[in-house]
# Entry
Amino acid sequence: MDVDIEGIIQCIKQGDENGVQMQLQQFNKEYGQCFFFDADDRERRRQRKLEEFRKSKVRDYTNSDSDNDDFEQEDRGLILRQNLAVVIVRFMRSGVKRSLQTVSLHSLRILTRDKKILGHLVTDSTLLTLAKLAGLTADDAGEEANDPDSDFYDNIIASLAEAKLLQGRAEEDGGEGEAVHPNEELSVVDEDSRSDELDSDSWFGSHRTSINEMHKGSIRQKALERGRRDRRESKMEGEGEEGEQGEEGLRKEALKVLCNMVYNSTWAQERFSALRLLEGLTERLSSGVNWSSSSSIQFYELRLMFLITALRPELSAQLKQEGGVPILTAALESCLEVQWKEPYECVLEPAAPPISLEASQRVMEILKILFNITYSTHKQEPSEEDAALYRHLVAILRLCLMRKCTLPEDNDELQGHTVNLLTALPLQCLNVLLTVPLQPESEQSLGVNMDCVHTLLKFMERRLEAGDRVKEKLTPILNLLTESCRVHRETRLYIRKHILPPLKDVSHRPEEGDTIKSRLVRLMTHLDTDLKHCAADLLFVLCKENVRRFVKYTGYGNAAGLLATRGLLGGQGSRSSTSEAQYSSDSDSDTEEYRQVKDRVNPVTGRVEVEQPNPMEGMTEEEKEEEARRLIMLFNKLSKDNIVQPMGVDEEGKLVPMRGLEENPLAEEAKSESDNEAESEKDD
# Structure
């Protein structure tokens, strides 16, 4: 059943609240889980027609107007949705009952998923109206008069009626009506072309003619692709507006609409900043509400704050300056119902129930916002007050790493956001993760509790095994473990024991196998430069930045990339001169199995190679010398033609182009022989 959008607008104009509510509920039911992908559909049709043209080799000019027909059909649906969205906003300002406002907001939320309708919908008055309904402000600046403007509705209804009349005439004339090029009408919804003073009412008053033109032909809402329901919503929330009719349902729907607008519209982001709506949102988060309750309003408040801080850096900095870190830390503490044992130690009960679904989703949003406002903190030297604040936060983050969620898939997501935030905080504040007293069942290294490090290690192992979106999932945990190993000897020894145990079997290449070490060594030759450097850095630090030991465990071929970057290809220094780490002087003792085959290990591949026959066996000294000349001549020719460039290692251990190859007597002789051969070929 197709929803009659014109009928909805007619009911709104007549003030029939019961009829409006019934029709909007039908609209919400049909399109509640759908999204608008007109651009994708248009591109698919273009590709299909292009393929048909390529197959036939001849353009069928009798159907050449079909593209315009498709475009007109899409734009008619777009204009209908634009009309409906603006009319709904105007209708909500007329003082309708709360239940109808909730239904109207639900419809508006569905419509704002299509970013193309936002060009003239996003105005200061609309944003302020939604902000008031969401409880973010008490400002009435966005409210219109309670008396409906009949001219506003009459203009739209007249446009639709005239469109129907034009459609009937076009059908009587055999469809010979003048076509309207879609690009002409798309220009009126371009966000960048709209001025600050542009209002939805004035837009419809000045574009009545174009609306009539756009409604030529069939007026029918196109079928939309089905979307995926947000699993963060509770089961009851799937009922839509019927599930929550009170103040909570109204605020929640308004927050969802604001989230869609901020996400889909750059203009909405700018006006959100200019209208100072962040202050109202911050006050809501710091007003002392019960974060341990099951209400999902806080989730959408947090989601809105995450979107605006992620998309507007100046608002992220503003939130931090206005005390965002302590406010969000307090909210995080409340969501997890933290109990303190020591100033920087939370009570962790092994038998504690898992984090509820609602709480885990709020916690993850808080972690994402905290990352947005602290992502550059690790580069700065914190003050004593800030350091205490960050240590307090890190103690709570340890709880996030160790606690379980109700849904198993949420465990990995929660730990991922926690790791991201840990990488943003000052490194000297992370020692809180290791200061927890040992328990009988605790993992330990040199008497230090390694439970948290063990959890991080297992987290990295799971992400190595997953193999999807490798860079964004692995880079944070690799960086965190690398920096932790560089400054904490206990952490390095514990992780090295699990990743780089003493070598015993060297019959396989270091990158072969399914161990953590093998997976990391394979990443050292990954196409992504950042990822391969992160993996190599971790292994290099585990080897205490000792070149010989690093090559021993990874093979010179795999290690060459990092060594070249750090100027250590020549192996002149035992470790990088730029390293600020203070490593112990313990030696790397070899196992008995490794010592027996040590002399036969190929340093390039890192394994014992099968003995190959000597290619020069049986050759005389003269034949060997002749073979050497031939090889030098070939290399010289390749270098001269710029096919290859011979490289060497300078005194600093860096790769540099080899110079002086021509000064080599053998090279000169080979060059002369090559020139003689060329001359003889020319004579022939």
Summary: The mean pLDDT is 78. Residues 66-92 form the longest helix (27 residues). Residues 34 and 227 are 5 Å apart (CA to CA).
